[in-house]
Specification:
By secondary structure, the chain is mainly α. Helix 1 packs across helix 2 and helix 1 crosses helix 3. It has one domain.
Length: about 130
């Protein structure tokens, strides 16, 4: 019988496929952490613009994503870019204005002012005037 400190032959943990699967899981987890931060920041923008609660901000992002058929993370990234540049695709801006400006089909109205245009100091919104 071999001594206890001697490692037996290759086991399931050294299998190249297992190593690849673990590396892929790590990559996905890192991506999820970044995505979560982007979404949280976009919720903050929606809260500031719409005067809504964090839960309502999440609902707004989710509904804009569903109504525009754009992945939630991409909606969040676009909102953050819009906050810096004032540029947002008209379809997404209309969905955001719609959700913050009047009751949604799927739920009660969100309290707070309507989205009236780009953030202060932003030059324009793609396809729309800055007024």
């Amino acid at each position: 019988m071999p001594p206890a400190d001697v490692c037996p032959g290759p086991g399931p943990d050294s299998d190249p496929d297992q190593i690849f699967r673990l590396q892929e899981q790590v990559r996905q987890l890192k991506e999820a952490v970044v995505s979560h931060a982007v979404v949280d920041q976009a919720i903050g923008v929606v809260i500031a613009l719409g005067g809504v609660t964090p839960d309502e901000g999440w609902i707004v992002l989710k509904e804009v994503s569903q109504h525009t058929n754009i992945k939630l993370r991409n909606v969040a990234e676009t909102i953050l870019i819009w906050r810096r540049t004032g540029v947002m695709p008209p379809q997404m801006l209309a969905a955001l204005e719609d959700r913050l400006g009047r009751p949604g089909v799927d739920g009660p109205p969100l309290d707070g002012p309507a989205l009236s245009g780009p953030p202060p100091g932003s030059p324009r919104v793609s396809g729309r005037s800055s007024r």
